[in-house]
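U., I forgot to send this yesterday:
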Amino acid sequence: MKGERPNLDKELDGKTFRSFYYLKEELSDFCRKNGLPATGGKIELTDRVILICCHYYELNVYLF
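Result:
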């Protein structure tokens, strides 16, 4: 995927998220703002962001 990198938010789907590079600090901030642990390595933080993004995306697609 090419283009401008989207901001991290709950509406970002997992596929789009994985298509771009995010700094560990950005991942930590996202986790903190969404009530998730903001500690750990980049892999753990990335996994948490994917869970939030995919879950939120699926809820919007299937429920609304």
